[in-house]
Design goal:
The structure holds two protein chains of two kinds. Chain A is an all-alpha fold. Helix content of chain A is about 75%, strand content about 0%. Chain A has six helices and no strands. In chain A, helix 1 packs antiparallel against helix 5. The longest helix of chain A is centred in the N-terminal third of the chain and has 44 residues. Chain B has 21 helices and no strands. In chain B, helix 7 packs antiparallel against helix 8 and helix 15 crosses helix 17. The chains are: A mainly alpha, B mainly alpha. Chains A and B meet through helix 1, helix 2, helix 3 and helix 5 of A and helix 1, helix 2, helix 3, helix 4 and helix 7 of B.
Chain lengths: ~190, ~450
Amino acid sequence: MSVLQSINAIMERWLGRFLISLTVVMIATVLWQVLTRLLARIAVHHQWALQLAPSKWTEELASFLLAWIALLGGSLALRRGEHMGYDSLYLDFGFQGRARCLRFVQLCVILFGGLLLIGGAMLVSMTLELEQTTPALRWPMGLVYLAAPLSGLLIICFACERVYLAESEEELLMQSATSADRANTGVHT
Amino acid sequence: MTLALLAGVFTLLLLLRIPVAIAIGLSAFATMLVDLPALAAATTLAQRSVTSAFTFTLLAIPLFILSGKLLAAGGVAQRLVRFARAAVGWMPGGLAVTNVFANLLFGSITGSAAATTSGIGGFMIPAMKAEGYPRGFAAALTATAATTGLLLPPSNVLIVYAMVAGGVSVGALFLAGYLPGLLLCSLLVIVAAWMSKAGGYGKRDQFPGWRALLQSALGILPSFILLLIVMGGIVSGLFTATEASAIAVLYALILVLGVYREIGFRQLPQLLLETASTTGMVFMLIGTSVALAWVFAYANVPELIAQWVGVLKEHPWAVLLAINVILLLVGTFLDVTPGVLIFTPIFLPLMVGLAPEFGLTGDEMRYHFGIVLVFNLCLGLVSPPAGTTLFIGASIAKCSLSELNRPLIPIFATGVIALLIVSYTPSLTLWLPRFWGLL
């Protein structure tokens, strides 16, 4: 068990670094697009001789990065307990009930991760076989879809750890504290 | 049959505390199994998850999340509170009115109800408690006022709506949200002042004088220049919503790191990581909701509902009312983003068909209905017993949800009145976009 825990801790750290780099590149890409589009517009306006075409690849690269950030970030958010859930019934359970409930939740999470893993792997192999590519960059579509099985795999690894932890007191405390933590986390709505 | 299965699985999963996105994903999968083999269903789910994120328009979402986080961490919230207090603190129910106004200002910058509840509530709820306002009242008021952030641009939910509705300009939709958001806030100001007065809560501040007001206004000026650049750029067509969001990130970086200097470069990786994580959460909701919408379309649900509501076709206003009620009920359990993704394909065609009855063109109805839909689902965020922002407000105020219920009744009723006014007065939503020649 402790092996999985330490592997997960390492994976989480590297996942975090990877996501930060992807986000920085994504922002830079969109800013580059704004710049080239504005320059192109100014060039047309002043009838400059040079040809400035707004780059087409930026949109695709940025969307590609978004797909990866979204899928991998989703697994990180699950790890950090940021996803919203309703705990009105959960709070009525006793200790045993809560532990059972938590275990069931994590099993559902594993099932979901499994669907992403298997469905995503199917997509990757299908699109690679058909040699489907993205329109502008001509990258294989399989590369875009690869984010899904990876995310599924991470989700499964993270959730397996929590299945075993479900009975530990620490885990129960953490779970009941999440509604207070939400103040600092869920910012999507 | 399909619908019953779906509703059953979804409710069961939600009650057992499964994260909402996963509950949506698994119930979509379970429903697909009725007609599809398991492998095909899994592939469809994974495919919707990826393709819904592989979209340039939705890139604005992570970027607005980041700029909101930068501004929230960088000291904008307390400056807004200072200005709001100087501007309206002298009114009856001083701090309560300040609370609503500060939520409006902050919501219009961050475009997120949860961020606004925690950002403004973090300052206002303790301040209100210290002045003798009941904590349940403080929390209920903050949670409701914070939902205006979703109506006031830039709003990520409106971007999502523009994508599913198709053929809707984000700029015009953004403009359409202003007046309904302001209406909700003005009504909330009235009810907050009235409740404070009736309950004998708190006291009125003295007007601090024009000089102090001007000084506090200078403190928030940079944040509003940002809003001006973003909205001006989008409305004039100079740049798209996505490009505006990138500019917002750049501007927020310069403002927070260069001018306010309350955080430094050291905190940036943490904020970027939080952004990636929040983005992942939002897109998991989007991906699974898109999969669920696909299941609905596959099972002909939009047509079924159209037939069902079609009974009322003679009375278009009743149709709208029925939709209002359904969305209010559903909004209690469903977050705003999935609500928009799931219900737009179901109700929008119906409403566009009824547009002439409301004296609108089909195109105008797309904008009007978008605002009504989002407004409706926003109220779901604060409708007991399961509203998201209610949880956040209660946890900041350190009180139980049941303590919120009583003060929430008049506040929530005000929200419903505002919703009905907005729903049945299309000219309110459409006035600004028409004025700017976008419709």
